[in-house]
Amino acid sequence: MAERNLNLKLTPVEEALSKYLSALDGQLVPKFEIISVEESLGRVTSAPVCAKLNSPHYNAAAMDGIAVKALITINTSESNPLELIEGYDFINVNTGDAVCEPYNAVIMAEDLIYEDNGKKIKITKSVFPNQHVRHIGESIKIGEEILSAKHKIRPVDIGMLLTAGITTIEVYAIPKVAIFPTGSEIIDICASNLPMGEVPEAGKIIESNSRMYEAQVKQAGGEPVRFATIPDNFDLLKDVITKAAAEFDMVLINAGSSAGTEDFTVQVLREIGEVIIHGVAMKPGKPVILAIVNGKPVIGTPGYPVSAFLSFETFALPILSVLTGRSIKPKQKIEAVLSEKITSTPKQREYVRIRLEQLNGQLTAFPLTRHSGIAMSLVKADGFCILDIGCECIEAGETVSIELIES
Amino acid sequence: MAERNLNLKLTPVEEALSKYLSALDGQLVPKFEIISVEESLGRVTSAPVCAKLNSPHYNAAAMDGIAVKALITINTSESNPLELIEGYDFINVNTGDAVCEPYNAVIMAEDLIYEDNGKKIKITKSVFPNQHVRHIGESIKIGEEILSAKHKIRPVDIGMLLTAGITTIEVYAIPKVAIFPTGSEIIDICASNLPMGEVPEAGKIIESNSRMYEAQVKQAGGEPVRFATIPDNFDLLKDVITKAAAEFDMVLINAGSSAGTEDFTVQVLREIGEVIIHGVAMKPGKPVILAIVNGKPVIGTPGYPVSAFLSFETFALPILSVLTGRSIKPKQKIEAVLSEKITSTPKQREYVRIRLEQLNGQLTAFPLTRHSGIAMSLVKADGFCILDIGCECIEAGETVSIELIES
Questions:
Q1: B-chain residues near A136 (CB < 8 A)
Q2: The whole model's pTM is what?
Q3: Is the ipTM of this complex over 0.85?
């Protein structure tokens, strides 16, 4: 039986993260790979990308119409129209066709008066050289920077890279994240053949965090690899995490980070690596473990769904962001009036789940239940009201800033 | 040779879209499928999803500690401590363990004084029945709505569905979108073996829009199927689009929607289906074709990258949104001061690409080149300043609302 980890020393959130990143410094190194541009949506450039071709790579008609020699139109006007003969004075061009010597300007179809079944054309305006001609390199010049480094590739970027003659690019590789559910009491209803609605045994807990983590890792641009549940067995856990830390870029261990008598995780991590932080001054999410094994980040997270979610967002996401090159989007915030007083332990940062509703024309923040076990509150919540360390309460009627949960 | 489509009648954007959706009414029907919850990230529920199990499904310890009979602690205090004997007065419990008769309350580990090597425990406070016990159904009750219909599934939802005993759900099926690049002048540098940097022939245009569309369709929750370029051949185009309209949920045909002499698309679509709209009062993006073939939406879009991008966003995205069940996120907007006067044709809605920069402490909107061929401007742009129909100009120094391009 493992010893209970009572009285965790709680480190403030930012301090915990910065200590962890410092400890990982030099070990948390992104990998890169070369991929096809057409498969690069959402990937992040490792370096600036510069054009390999001019665009257009020839002088091109910018309009459908005819290519002409500008010089001969010089005195043309309504009162002095000019007749042009196909093949001699003009050639028909569509948008994108090459405009070659001796032609140097395009007149758009809308401005032409056709005669003699299209063999002759009358115009009533002069044109200047290069009119409606896109010049070599007008859109993109060889060597021009198309994308900066650390740019997350959008659909328009894919189009532009190809136009600039670039078919492959170097991007951050997708980090592989091992996800371990742990606990002898855990059951996996995805893999089990339990018919829907059949009640599991008392004391058996349906495992769901590892599936949530799979989705969170995917959303963050990583590749999740979820393992079967590890029962509470010190040697087994030790063996499995050691192997994962050798093979994966990051390891998540869910549950087993608290003070339960079977919570081996922290002891295992101390034996095979270094525990940088155990216990963070945040609620929910307090008993998080930030460790390093074989130079890899290994994070132990609490079992309650809300705690599991918040500890991923707070600690795993910044680590993944280093590996994927993706910047973390600042959370959208909105101001609302608090419907009722909320209190907090001033020693911790508390995340109070909030449901937003219009009440008498005013956006109102309704606090949802704060027990981290009431998981539905996270699904029902629109965002969090964050009471930072030192804050004991916020009164009803006060205007608060709500951090919105992404949909 | 196809006739030139001169003088398109331009329909305002909203009118064009609403006419198209009306014409599609009853034919644009989403399909549904049942999938595993753990693979449902980003999918959209077809109907409300209700819990199949209570959570917890038994009375569970909410803390690590001991389970006791609350009644025997009734007069306990600092001055009147109570000694408890393992197996008789208490059992050890971890968070999540079942709390069964005769026990009905939990005392957390932090409040226990261990004696006799843990066989006896002293407490100094009374406890109330149900203290630190999570009751059957406290988090989730059988039949309770977990997710509403048309809900896009997030990582937290996956966790919650499993906790509620739900392993499969019905979601909107992923619409299949056929993408056809067209034009005899087009080259596919992804498929070609052209070494990077080798300049293609004059008049040959590097195809990129179909790859941008693949990415746009993916981002919108559809499955793109890109076909090889169709040369300008009326019968071939007709044959291919007819087949695609039978097999796919939506068809995109890029280029061939303008007034070029080889622009067969609109004529093909008139022959095999109904052209609802040809020409929209927007710039760039004017020569768009909104058609219906075999009850399926078939959209012909212009060739210039910016026009191709905007016509997808304006017309293909709302159609896809019906098929995927995903709501279209309202564009984020930001106010900025215009750096220079911009003018527009009042007959069209014009999208002016804007680069945002701080200038003398003020967010300033710098208009980028407006020729739809200068594709780089879309990559460099932070957003659009939209000059609606009727607007002839906006003066330098005026505050404008910029619609941000998603990163």
A1: none
A2: 0.91
A3: yes
